[in-house]
Amino acid sequence: METEKQIVNVTVAGGYEPAVVNLKQGVPAEITFTRTSDQGCLDVVHSQELNFSTELPLNSAQTVNVPTDKAGEFAFSCGMDMFFGKVVVSK
């Protein structure tokens, strides 16, 4: 039996699209960020609350695993904390 997994793609170009990622609690999840613009500080995405930080090379998909054990809203942002998105984990 294959384990269900939530997979979300986020485009990074002058911000995050979508800026809000909705996930179900308790189901493994990953977000793939693809930066399509060479604008400033969007070359890094990080979240202290979700325990990830990764560089985003231009036009190269980068995948992070997202914990879904707790329900709530968790922020992520660019390297300079100027552009924000959030992950909403719900029951």
UniProtKB/TrEMBL annotation:
It holds the Pfam family Cupredoxin_1. Signal peptide: none annotated. Residues 4-89 form the EfeO-type cupredoxin-like domain. This is EfeO-type cupredoxin-like domain-containing protein. The lineage of its organism: Bacteria, Bacillati, Bacillota, Bacilli, Lactobacillales.
